[in-house]
Structures are given as C-alpha cells and as structure tokens.
Amino acid sequence: MPLQREHVQFALIFLSVPLQLFLTSYMGSNEASRTYAISKLVNQLSELRESWFRLDEWKSWCSKLISRELELVLKWGINDFKEDVNGECPAVEVFKYRDENGYFGQSPE
After folding, report:
1. Cα distance between residue 52 and residue 22, in whole Å
2. Of the residues 43, 48, 60, 106, which has the fewest C-beta atoms closer than 10 A?
3. pLDDT tens, position by position, 8-17
4. CA of 43: how far to CAs of 8, 19, 24, 35, 52, in Å?
C-alpha cells in the first residue's frame, strides 16, 4: 500500500500531541526557557537537514565506502563477487536437505 497524503496528515496530527506534551513538560516552566529550547531544537533539525538531506554528503559517503571496499579488494585480494567454479548454488542443496520434497519455505507448490 503506497504512502498517501491522508497517511501523512494522520501521522502529523497523531504525533503533534506527544510533541506538545514533551515541549511543555520537559522544556521548563517559563516562556524564556521554552523559547530557548524550541530554538535549539529548530537549530538541531536544520543541522540534521544540512548533514543528511544533501546530495553532496551522500556522494562523499558513497565514494568513501566504495574506495574502502576497492582498497580491501586490491590489497587483500578479497573478491566475493566472482562466480563459483562449479556453477552451483549451495542454497539449493540446503533446501533439498531441509525438505525432502524440495519445496521452498514449507510451501506445497
């Protein structure tokens, strides 16, 4: 079931009450402390948006991950991507061992 606009609206309304309770209960009793806490929360959310929802950050993370994996492959010769010499898949034998009829996932079809 795809995410529809009504689902998002319901989630926002449903989560607004606990957020209000959290802000009023744990952020202090006077208006100045609540204002400071809310501004700090907004700043943290904007920093989160800057660090997680930017394309450049994801590009740098992916390039670091790929370079680290390539370094391991080139340095240690680790290559899990090559095919089996015999061309066999061990999962088929495991399924046949677990179920003598060869059904997948206990299915009779």
Report:
1. 25
2. 106
3. 899 889 988 8
4. 24, 17, 19, 12, 14
- Separation CA 105–CA 108 (nearest Å): 9
Q: Average pLDDT for residues 94-103, to the nearest whole number?
A: 64
DSSP 3-state helix, strand, coil percentages of the chain (rounded to 5)? 70, 0, 30
Rounded Cα distance, 37 and 55, in Å: 29
What is the arithmetic mean of pLDDT over 63-82? 76
d(CA 96, CA 89): 12
- 103 in helix, strand or coil? coil
- Alpha-carbon gap, residue 87 to 82, rounded angstroms: 11
Question: Could you tell me if 60 and 68 are in contact, meaning their C-beta atoms sit under 8 angstroms apart?
Answer: no
The radius of gyration computed from the CA coordinates of the chain, to the nearest angstrom, equals: 26
